[in-house]
Design brief:
Chain lengths: 316, 290
């Protein structure tokens, strides 16, 4: 497994580094950065859904917390945006630990509705507290300041290029941490409880504690993704925490193959690109998106990457 | 006191719609263990098809009937094309399939109909009825009455007819039901048709009050899902009580606390209930089989 981890990371790093060679215009850097941000949130869900076997239909709520931490903290507390990212992580982790304790006792659809409720509550606060968040119209986000720092050092990069590399590096770090977790004792315990909670607890695994850990970790991933999204767009609306965004990231994870980090990233690539390709047929966007979700789940129920891998293995 | 009564009336009206959506969830869940997130789209389709059929010159009762039948057919198609082929897939995959279906139906309605808000004329006029210092619209009585009639009809169907008992048997144990000769695939098809028809009926009844557009389904599906969970998934009585309670919570919160946070309170109550009773109000206790 050790080599496999470094192989996966190396492939990811090479892809991130090499892709810009194919970009015909600066616009593609922005799409790339968006893919990396989504992939980061999805990597968190791989830990929660793929390994620990828990459902969340409200993870965009944590992305919303991360995003609005970056929007609000610099303005009202005078914090540097980088500190604001950390603040968002801390708040998300704290909230996840607080609500995770009671709701992770729930199973299947019941856990679904509880997490969904959490996501909706976050969206509602962001939408209704107009004085702070600007309500449904959203608010602008202060600049990160790193690009200006680079400029002073004599390196000039455009916003799109800067965020492409920044998000790419954060994604690599996120994937590296997740893969480390996969091969650790905690990771094995998580996968064991996915198989059977009863069996896992009989061999001494503290099931509630582990579930909570997975929930908190995945919340932090979503929070960082939200922060990066807010900072690179320079503007944020409550939609980032909305139900549809929660569904989007779960779909990305399951579409690519929720058991593996690389598969989940593939899912993020496809579902981020799809709307970009479909802008030409804006009218049919929802129609096609819905059909893709249904068809993939029917014909490739384990997700794209595992299904393709299984097919390749069968052929000598 | 008068205002309390007024809030109760509006809460019961909204709650009756939620209860109908929750009943739809319950029927499908019982037959197939699937939570159908496209349930809200059935309500939307019921409203939209009636509006457009009515505008095309078809009399209202006939337009409503047409909407219910067409929506039931769409429900059957959903089962045959998307749910049945994915039998045995994990919960997450099923959730994505039904949400995909809801996005698909929304996208199609946006193309076939339009993006405008539509309304239907009230069935029995708009003159409010005075009851003890508060008023209630005749249409509200239609909605509440409709929910109660559907509930009683379903109860009779499940307890008094052989087909209904076959549905319950399938819900209880699919394999055992097959062994005693129940065609469980037909039961599933029936459940989707029934559930879609109930959703469409809710749409027809509620449209004169709440209006309808292509995108009303998501919110309704979430509320109906929450109501079904509150009552205990798979229990028709729970769906009815859960829906009505949810409507009442919303109306009372909107009346006494904050209309912006009325939906927040609904979800907080649901979270609280699930903490205390992880199976919902009427849900049966279940243990994991090793």
């Amino acid at each position: 497994m050790l080599t496999s981890k470094w192989v996966q990371l190396a492939v990811l790093a090479v892809l991130i580094a090499a892709l810009p060679l194919l970009f015909p215009s600066g616009y593609y850097y922005r799409i790339g950065a968006l893919i990396f941000v989504n992939a980061l949130a999805v990597t968190g869900l791989v830990i929660l859904v793929g390994w620990a076997g828990q459902i969340s239909l409200g993870h965009a709520g944590f992305a919303g917390i991360g995003a609005y931490a970056c929007a609000l903290a610099p303005e009202h507390l005078g914090l540097h945006p980088v500190v604001a990212i950390v603040l968002g992580m801390v708040i998300s982790a704290g909230l996840a630990a607080l609500i995770g304790k009671p709701i992770l006792r729930l199973k299947g659809y019941y856990l679904g509705v509880a997490t969904l409720g959490f996501g909706i509550l976050v969206t509602m606060v962001l939408t209704n507290e107009r004085i702070w968040t600007g309500g449904p119209d959203g608010m602008s986000v202060a600049k990160l300041g790193l690009r200006e720092l680079l400029r002073d050092m004599g390196v000039r990069v455009s916003g799109g290029v800067f965020w492409y590399w920044a998000c790419g590096i954060v994604l690599l770090i996120g994937a590296w941490l997740a893969l480390n977790l996969y091969n650790s004792a905690t990771g094995r315990a998580l996968r064991a409880l996915h198989g059977s909670e009863v069996a896992a607890s009989t061999i001494g695994i503290d099931v509630p504690r582990l579930k909570l850990q997975a929930f908190v970790i995945s919340a932090v991933y979503a929070s960082v993704a939200g922060s990066l999204l807010a900072l690179q767009n320079g503007f944020i609306t409550p939609d980032v925490a909305g139900f549809m965004h929660s569904i989007e990231i779960v779909t990305m994870a399951v579409l690519g193959g929720v058991g593996s980090v690389v598969g989940a990233i593939l899912g993020a690539v496809i579902l981020t690109l799809l709307p970009q390709v479909l802008t030409v047929f804006a009218e049919y966007e929802q129609l096609v998106l819905g059909a893709v979700m249904i068809l993939v789940m029917i014909f490739l129920p384990r997700g794209l990457l595992p299904s393709i891998a299984a097919r390749l293995k069968r052929k000598p | 006191m008068d205002s309390l009564l007024q809030f109760l009336f509006s809460g019961l009206t909204v709650g009756a719609v939620y209860a109908l959506v929750a009943l739809g969830f319950t029927i499908i869940y019982n037959a197939s263990d699937v939570v159908n997130f496209a349930q809200g789209e059935f309500v939307m389709l019921g409203g939209m098809i009636t509006v457009f059929a009515h505008e095309a010159g078809i009399p209202l009762p006939l337009a409503a009937l047409l909407a219910v039948v067409l929506t039931a057919a769409i429900g059957v198609a959903l089962n045959k094309l998307a749910i049945e082929p994915a039998r045995g897939a994990p919960v997450v995959s099923i959730i994505i399939i039904t949400i995909g279906a809801s996005i698909f139906i929304r996208g199609a309605s946006q193309l076939i109909f339009d993006k405008q808000l539509h309304r239907l004329p009230s069935f029995s006029g708009d003159a409010p009825i005075r009851i003890g210092g508060a008023t209630i619209l005749p249409q509200s009585l239609w909605v509440i009455g409709g929910a109660l009639i559907v509930f009683v009809a379903l109860w009779l169907f499940f307890t008094r007819t052989l087909t209904g008992k076959a549905v319950l048997a399938t819900a209880n144990n699919r394999l055992a039901a097959q062994l005693v000769g129940i065609n469980t695939r037909a039961i599933m098809t029936l459940s989707f048709a029934l559930s879609a028809a109930i959703g469409a009926l809710a749409g027809v009844l509620a449209t004169p009050i709440t209006l309808v557009s292509y995108d009303v389904g998501v919110a309704l599906a979430l509320k109906g899902f929450a109501a079904a969970m509150l009552g205990g998934m798979g229990n028709p009585k729970g769906a009815l009580v859960g829906g009505l309670l949810l409507g009442l919570f919303e109306a009372l919160t909107a009346g006494y606390l904050s209309s912006q946070y009325k939906e927040a309170v609904a979800f907080i109550v649901i979270l609280a209930v699930l903490f205390a009773m992880p199976q919902g109000l009427f849900g049966a206790k279940s243990t994991e089989r090793v």
